[in-house]
Write a structure and sequence with these properties.
Blueprint (H helix, E strand, L loop, with lengths): L12 H10 L2 E5 L10 H4 L11 E6 L2 H14 L8 E4 L4 E2 L6 E5 H10 L6 E6 L7 H12 L8 E6 L5 H6 L9 E3 L7 E5 L8 H15 L3 E5 L3 H11 L7 E6 L5 H8 L7 E6 L12 E6 L2 E8 L4 E8 L2 H9 L7 E5 L3 H6 L14 H10 L12 H13 L11 H7 L5 H10 L2 H11 L15 H9 L9 H18 L13 H8 L4 E6 L2 E4 L4 E3 L11 E7 L5 E10 L1 H7 L4 E9 L2 E10 L2 E8 L5 H13 L9 H17 L8 H6 L1 H4 L10 H5 L3 H8 L4 H8 L3 E3 L5 E5 L6 E5 L11 E2 L4 E2 L1 E5 L5 E5 L2 H6 L2 H11 L11
Parallel strand pairs: 1-7, 1-8, 2-5, 2-6, 3-5, 6-7, 9-16, 10-12, 10-13, 11-12, 13-16, 19-21, 27-30
Antiparallel strand pairs: 3-4, 14-15, 17-18, 17-20, 18-19, 20-21, 22-23, 23-24, 25-26, 26-27, 28-29, 30-31
Helix pairs in contact: 4-5, 7-8, 12-13, 14-15, 15-16, 15-19, 16-17, 16-18, 22-26
Length: 812
């Protein structure tokens, strides 16, 4: 083998060799550019524990890094890719019989483990960039460790670009203790951090363009720009065109681009020219972008997030962690001092999390749960265990797809699904559809949209895209390279599933039915033009001018994840006859509910939770209606009853008698009436159908009816509603205050010598005595005492004010 390059990682190769010889497992931490991905595997090829035919398998989290790393090691060993060094991704395999180091994407390792957990011939497995905490990395590591007893001599290494290695040392622990941690400090040059915070109202693209222009004018070297996604990369590239000079090449670097475009971005600039590389976080680690001395960091990245309320995973633009920012800035100091422009403030930087959150805690876990069911073991060693709620949601989905049985075991369909390198939804479409259409639909859903343009200018109709892929439909918005990738991907899926693939025999009109097999929970029915209701109950929409706006049913494959009203970015139409053929029948749901002050019967027809139609009408009389009316009275705490003053007075009269005469009088307080509605109100609402019937109730009569016989008659005698004046005219008694009270002109009580009482003489009436102008002059519960006492002074005052009235000295 040729001499290894003098990179910083060489200094710790001896420590790693000792760790693997003594412990069998190790954790490596080294900054980007230290050479850990390309030098360490080569340095370990001659170890005594590695047989002459033994192989090293190294996992990379991205396809681009997988190819680039293998090519770099092949270059260092002056061999062709596929000889000593090979690689395998989901779509490409370049491994020969003499290959000793295989660089593979994470999913490839999972498939190999599921096929044979012993991994025959593999003596060392290296997990690169474990700090990125990808879901497939965590799964592959957990499965490998679970299978360790089958190959006790196999070595395992976890490599990280950050110092957060303790958790991996613990996971890789053996009986001898945690795995040794080998640290390489690297040989980076100082990087000048310059803060250029953009305001929240400032758009990202212009801020990046301004920063790049400034850097090109004031700093030397090539520029590496970190942006969240391909859309932002293309927009910034377009805006940079008139800004950069003729000697500057703008290159794009993202996983969605072709291999040729990626290679051009990684290639050094020709002499006399500068380069601006617009990249996603794919350039944060693993890859080496030669010539970079300037980094412009937007500070954001696209990351998958799982919304448990909607059951949807969506890519969300999030602020990067501090360790990610440090790795990005380090790209400027690989060969000489550099500069990094950060488009956020130093204060904001300090508030950001130290490390990126593990993907296993953020995303939808259907694929993981299916893999675990196929593996057959539940108690695995996780860096972070999958959240129980996300596992439960994934299990529900897989059971609805028929991939898991009720007890969680994998089914025959699930076994076929786990072999397909797509999400379980798409795998179920292929495994059950068994035709070329299911493969094309799966590829269209999985890959980036083949129709280019603004979201508002591109229809959501999947069948249109199927037509473009099969060649039956032309569309000027179609990206020819993207269409070619879809055809290749669909053909590859068909090959893996053992399906004959012929584009000429694919009927795009059946796309909706095919899509339904993978997205049964995304079935939607039209509410009105462009507005739909998903089977889960959530709302969804397309633009009113979209070709799907008026279809009665559709399946939404791609929605934006908005909780209350998701935009359908990709879907396919269905008709009712197709639904009847593949789904259970319509269920009629009848519910009584209040619409304002009116009780209505709502009759909904549903397919699952999907509302197909609704009728609202006045309910029929019956027990359910009566119960709803009684519940209304209970919920309003009796305020919906037509209370009159007389009814409230009767309630207070009975309360007075209960207080002074004991328990023979019932408790008619509001609290008790509410608690006993079934006893005193229900039978009065039999035959009622709405609020109008409640409004016609005579509450006073109902309260009297609630009094046991003969108290209904005694109440008037013992707590009369009125007091009779000496002239024979009644005056109402108010029982609702602290004491029963009569408000009356003092002249109308002339002649009352004995004070009136109620409750069998136990409670004297309180008299509020009024002047001829009805103004209060005295309150007394002892008229004889009043006549004998303060009446003289009151009489004198009244005679002065009202001389025309009679004011006797002894009115009693």
């Amino acid at each position: 083998m040729n001499e290894l390059p003098d990179l910083p990682i060489i200094d710790v190769v001896g420590d790693l060799r000792a760790a693997l010889a003594d412990h069998g497992r190790a954790v490596i931490t080294a900054p980007p550019g230290a050479g850990k991905s390309t030098v360490l595997p080569l340095a370990l090829l001659g170890e005594p524990w590695l047989p002459p035919t033994g192989r090293i398998v190294m996992l990379e989290p991205r396809r681009l890094a997988t190819r680039a790393t293998a090519r770099r090691m092949a270059h260092l060993t002056r061999t062709a890719v596929g000889e000593l060094i090979g690689y395998q991704t989901r779509d490409e395999r370049r491994i020969g019989p003499a290959t000793r180091i295989e660089v593979v994407t994470e999913g490839v390792l999972t498939r190999r483990l599921q096929g044979d957990p012993s991994l025959p011939g593999v003596d060392l497995v290296i997990f690169d960039e474990v700090h990125e905490r990808n879901l497939t990395t965590d799964l592959g590591l957990a499965l490998l460790l679970d299978a360790a007893p089958l190959a006790p001599d196999r070595r395992v290494v976890a490599m990280s670009a950050t110092a957060d290695t303790a958790v991996f040392a613990d996971v890789l622990a053996t009986a001898a203790g945690p795995a040794p941690v080998v640290t390489s400090s690297g040989r980076t040059f100082p990087v000048d951090i310059r803060w250029r915070p953009r305001q929240r109202r400032d758009r990202l693209d212009p801020a990046v363009v301004t920063a790049v222009g400034h850097a090109l004018r004031h700093d030397d070297g090539d520029v590496l720009v970190f942006l969240p996604g391909i859309a932002e990369i293309r927009r910034v590239a377009e805006q940079l065109a008139p800004v950069v000079g003729a000697d500057v090449d703008v290159r794009l670097l993202a996983g969605a681009l072709s291999a040729d475009e990626q290679d051009r971005a990684l290639a050094p600039s020709p002499p006399g020219r500068r380069r601006v590389v617009l990249a996603t976080d794919i350039a944060e680690t693993s890859l080496t972008v030669e010539g970079v001395r300037i980094v412009v960091d937007s500070g954001v990245a696209r990351a998958p997030r799982f919304d448990t309320g909607t059951g949807m995973t969506r890519l969300t633009t999030v602020s990067i962690s501090r360790d990610s920012a440090e790795q990005r800035a380090g790209r400027a100091g690989r060969t000489e001092p550099g500069v990094a422009y950060r488009l956020w403030s130093r204060i904001e930087h300090g508030a950001r999390p130290a490390h990126r959150p593990p993907e296993i805690l953020q995303v939808e876990l259907a694929g993981l749960v299916l893999e675990l069911a196929a593996w057959g073991a539940a108690d695995l060693a996780w860096v972070d265990p999958p959240p129980a709620r996300a596992v439960a949601a994934a299990t529900d989905l897989l059971q609805s797809l028929g991939a898991l049985a009720d007890d969680g075991s994998i089914t025959t369909v699930g076994r076929r699904m786990v072999e397909l390198p797509v999400h379980p939804r798409l795998a179920h479409m292929i495994a059950t559809g068994r035709d070329g259409l299911s493969c094309v639909v799966a590829a269209l859903v999985e890959e980036r949209d083949i129709l280019r343009g603004r979201l508002d200018d591109v229809p959501a109709d999947l069948s249109l895209r199927v037509g473009v892929v099969t060649g039956r439909t032309g569309d000027d918005r179609a990206d020819r390279r993207a269409v070619a990738r879809i055809r290749e991907r669909a053909a590859d899926l068909a090959r893996r599933a053992g399906i004959a693939f012929d584009l000429d025999r694919i009927d795009g009109d059946r796309a909706g039915l095919t899509l339904l097999a993978g997205f049964p929970d995304r079935l939607a029915g039209r509410r009105r033009r462009g507005q739909f209701q998903l089977r889960t109950g959530a709302g969804a929409w397309v633009r009113p001018d979209d070709s799907l706006a008026d279809v009665p049913f559709l399946v939404a494959a791609d929605v934006d994840g908005h909780r209350s009203s998701a935009r359908i970015r990709l879907g396919a139409a269905l008709d009712s006859s197709e639904l009847v053929a593949v789904l259970d029948g319509v269920v009629e749901d009848r519910r009584l509910e209040w619409d304002g002050d009116e009780l209505v019967l709502r009759v909904e027809r549903r397919l699952g939770a999907l509302r197909l139609g609704e009728e609202r009408r006045r309910p029929d009389a019956g027990d359910e209606t009566t119960a709803a009316l009684v519940q209304r009275v209970r919920a309003t705490r009796l305020t919906s009853l037509p209370w009159t003053d007389a009814a409230r007075q009767l309630q207070a009269r009975v309360a007075l008698l209960r207080e002074h005469e004991g328990g023979r009088w019932p408790d008619l307080t509001d609290a008790t009436l509410i608690a006993t509605l079934d006893d005193w109100l229900v039978h009065h609402l039999v035959g009622a159908t709405g609020a109008a019937d409640i409004a016609r109730l005579d509450v006073g009569r109902l309260l009297r009816a609630a009094l046991p016989w003969p108290l209904g008659r005694e109440v008037d005698a013992r707590a009369p509603a009125s007091w009779i004046r000496p002239d024979g005219r009644p005056v109402s008694i108010d029982y609702t205050g602290e004491r029963p009270t009569v408000s009356v002109r003092v002249q109308n009580v002339f002649g009352v010598a004995e004070h009136p009482t109620v409750a069998g003489g136990r409670v004297p009436l309180t008299f509020e005595l009024l002047s001829p102008a009805d103004r209060p002059i005295q309150v007394t519960a002892d008229l004889p005492g009043f006549w004998a006492g303060s009446w003289a002074a009151v009489r004198k005052e009244m005679a002065g004010r009202y001389p025309k009235h009679r004011w006797p000295a002894h009115p009693g």
